[in-house]
Amino acid sequence: MANIVERGWVYRDEFSREESTGDVKVKYKLANTVIADELAIFPFIVLTSRGSSCKRWTTKIVEPKEWCDVQTRHFPKTTTYIDVKRVEILSVEDIQKKRRGGRESFAKMARLPENGMRELDQLKVRARRSTDTPDDTKTILGITLGEEITDSFLHKYNL
After folding, report:
1. Domains observed in the chain
2. How many other C-beta atoms lie within 10 A of the C-beta of residue 132?
3. How far apart are CA 29 and CA 26, in angstroms?
4. How many Cα atoms occupy the beta-carbon half-sphere of 128 within 13 Å?
5. Which residues contact 83 (CB under 8 A, 6 or more apart)?
6. Considering the entire predicted model, what is its pTM?
7. pLDDT tens readout for residues 24-64
8. Is the separation of the CB atoms in 107 and 72 below 8 Å?
9. Which of 22, 42, 93, 159 is least enclosed, having the fewest CB within 10 Å?
10. What residues are paired with 28 via a beta bridge?
11. Backbone angles phi, psi at 9, to 5 degrees
Protein backbone atom coordinates (compact mmCIF):
# COMPACT_ATOMS: atom_id res chain seq x y z
CA MET A 1 0.00 0.00 0.00
CA ALA A 2 2.80 2.43 0.91
CA ASN A 3 4.26 2.21 -2.62
CA ILE A 4 1.37 4.17 -4.11
CA VAL A 5 3.65 7.23 -3.81
CA GLU A 6 7.34 7.48 -3.01
CA ARG A 7 9.02 9.90 -0.61
CA GLY A 8 10.91 12.65 -2.38
CA TRP A 9 9.06 12.39 -5.68
CA VAL A 10 7.06 15.25 -7.15
CA TYR A 11 3.69 14.31 -8.62
CA ARG A 12 1.75 16.42 -11.09
CA ASP A 13 -1.84 16.59 -9.87
CA GLU A 14 -4.02 17.52 -12.83
CA PHE A 15 -7.16 17.82 -10.72
CA SER A 16 -6.13 19.73 -7.62
CA ARG A 17 -8.84 21.84 -6.02
CA GLU A 18 -7.79 25.24 -4.72
CA GLU A 19 -9.19 25.47 -1.17
CA SER A 20 -9.73 29.23 -1.20
CA THR A 21 -11.53 29.45 -4.57
CA GLY A 22 -12.70 25.92 -5.35
CA ASP A 23 -11.01 26.17 -8.76
CA VAL A 24 -9.44 23.02 -10.19
CA LYS A 25 -5.93 23.46 -11.53
CA VAL A 26 -2.61 21.66 -11.99
CA LYS A 27 -0.38 21.55 -8.92
CA TYR A 28 2.95 19.89 -8.30
CA LYS A 29 3.12 18.01 -5.00
CA LEU A 30 6.14 16.60 -3.22
CA ALA A 31 5.47 13.29 -1.48
CA ASN A 32 6.60 13.25 2.09
CA THR A 33 6.57 10.39 4.57
CA VAL A 34 3.73 7.85 4.61
CA ILE A 35 1.65 8.39 7.74
CA ALA A 36 1.28 4.96 9.28
CA ASP A 37 1.08 2.21 6.68
CA GLU A 38 -2.14 0.88 8.15
CA LEU A 39 -3.83 4.29 7.70
CA ALA A 40 -2.41 4.79 4.20
CA ILE A 41 -2.62 8.56 4.13
CA PHE A 42 0.05 10.65 2.52
CA PRO A 43 1.22 14.18 3.32
CA PHE A 44 2.37 16.29 0.39
CA ILE A 45 4.02 19.68 0.22
CA VAL A 46 2.56 21.80 -2.57
CA LEU A 47 5.25 23.45 -4.72
CA THR A 48 5.00 26.90 -6.24
CA SER A 49 6.89 29.00 -8.76
CA ARG A 50 6.06 32.18 -6.85
CA GLY A 51 8.59 32.86 -4.13
CA SER A 52 6.53 35.82 -2.94
CA SER A 53 3.83 33.44 -1.69
CA CYS A 54 6.25 31.65 0.66
CA LYS A 55 7.89 32.40 4.00
CA ARG A 56 11.63 32.59 3.48
CA TRP A 57 12.50 30.84 6.75
CA THR A 58 10.33 27.76 5.98
CA THR A 59 11.10 27.50 2.26
CA LYS A 60 13.67 25.55 0.26
CA ILE A 61 14.52 27.07 -3.10
CA VAL A 62 15.22 24.44 -5.75
CA GLU A 63 16.93 25.32 -9.02
CA PRO A 64 16.02 23.20 -12.08
CA LYS A 65 19.40 21.41 -12.13
CA GLU A 66 18.88 20.13 -8.57
CA TRP A 67 16.04 17.74 -9.51
CA CYS A 68 16.96 14.10 -10.20
CA ASP A 69 15.33 11.50 -12.40
CA VAL A 70 13.16 13.97 -14.30
CA GLN A 71 10.52 11.82 -16.01
CA THR A 72 9.05 14.22 -18.52
CA ARG A 73 9.78 17.32 -20.50
CA HIS A 74 6.65 18.86 -18.96
CA PHE A 75 8.31 19.32 -15.57
CA PRO A 76 8.88 23.05 -14.91
CA LYS A 77 12.30 24.34 -15.90
CA THR A 78 12.11 27.28 -13.50
CA THR A 79 13.06 27.85 -9.89
CA THR A 80 10.70 26.02 -7.54
CA TYR A 81 9.81 27.06 -3.98
CA ILE A 82 8.95 24.43 -1.38
CA ASP A 83 7.39 26.02 1.70
CA VAL A 84 6.93 23.23 4.25
CA LYS A 85 3.85 25.00 5.63
CA ARG A 86 1.94 24.36 2.37
CA VAL A 87 0.92 20.82 3.31
CA GLU A 88 -1.94 18.70 2.08
CA ILE A 89 -3.11 15.20 3.05
CA LEU A 90 -4.31 12.70 0.43
CA SER A 91 -5.68 9.24 1.12
CA VAL A 92 -5.15 6.18 -1.05
CA GLU A 93 -8.72 6.66 -2.31
CA ASP A 94 -7.97 10.30 -3.24
CA ILE A 95 -4.90 9.29 -5.23
CA GLN A 96 -6.65 6.39 -6.96
CA LYS A 97 -9.55 8.67 -7.91
CA LYS A 98 -7.12 11.21 -9.38
CA ARG A 99 -5.36 8.48 -11.37
CA ARG A 100 -8.65 7.34 -12.90
CA GLY A 101 -8.55 10.57 -14.89
CA GLY A 102 -5.83 9.02 -17.04
CA ARG A 103 -2.25 7.87 -16.80
CA GLU A 104 -0.92 11.42 -16.53
CA SER A 105 -3.51 12.76 -14.08
CA PHE A 106 -1.30 12.03 -11.04
CA ALA A 107 2.09 11.19 -12.49
CA LYS A 108 5.67 11.12 -11.17
CA MET A 109 7.66 14.06 -12.48
CA ALA A 110 11.02 14.31 -10.70
CA ARG A 111 12.79 13.45 -7.46
CA LEU A 112 14.32 15.71 -4.84
CA PRO A 113 17.63 14.20 -3.66
CA GLU A 114 17.76 12.87 -0.08
CA ASN A 115 19.90 15.79 1.11
CA GLY A 116 17.09 18.11 -0.04
CA MET A 117 14.55 16.03 1.89
CA ARG A 118 16.73 16.29 5.02
CA GLU A 119 16.85 20.05 4.54
CA LEU A 120 13.03 20.08 4.39
CA ASP A 121 12.93 18.11 7.66
CA GLN A 122 15.00 20.86 9.31
CA LEU A 123 12.62 23.50 7.93
CA LYS A 124 9.67 21.52 9.33
CA VAL A 125 11.19 21.68 12.81
CA ARG A 126 11.58 25.45 12.41
CA ALA A 127 7.99 25.83 11.18
CA ARG A 128 6.63 23.82 14.12
CA ARG A 129 8.31 26.21 16.56
CA SER A 130 6.75 29.25 14.93
CA THR A 131 3.73 30.91 16.47
CA ASP A 132 2.30 31.78 13.05
CA THR A 133 2.12 28.16 11.84
CA PRO A 134 -1.48 26.87 12.12
CA ASP A 135 -1.99 24.04 14.63
CA ASP A 136 -3.23 21.61 11.94
CA THR A 137 -0.07 22.23 9.94
CA LYS A 138 2.10 21.76 13.03
CA THR A 139 0.38 18.42 13.68
CA ILE A 140 0.95 17.17 10.13
CA LEU A 141 4.59 18.31 10.16
CA GLY A 142 5.13 16.60 13.53
CA ILE A 143 3.73 13.34 12.25
CA THR A 144 6.01 13.46 9.19
CA LEU A 145 8.91 13.89 11.61
CA GLY A 146 7.94 10.70 13.46
CA GLU A 147 5.70 11.98 16.25
CA GLU A 148 2.74 9.97 17.47
CA ILE A 149 -0.60 10.35 15.68
CA THR A 150 -3.15 11.98 17.97
CA ASP A 151 -6.81 11.03 18.34
CA SER A 152 -7.84 14.51 17.21
CA PHE A 153 -5.89 14.05 13.97
CA LEU A 154 -7.54 10.67 13.35
CA HIS A 155 -10.96 12.18 14.02
CA LYS A 156 -10.38 15.19 11.74
CA TYR A 157 -9.47 12.94 8.81
CA ASN A 158 -12.18 10.36 9.61
CA LEU A 159 -9.69 7.59 10.38
Report:
1. 2-156 (2.30.30.110)
2. 8
3. 10
4. 15
5. 45, 48, 53, 54, 55, 58, 59
6. 0.86
7. 888 999 998 766 556 677 889 999 999 888 888 999 999 99
8. yes
9. 22
10. 12
11. -95, 145
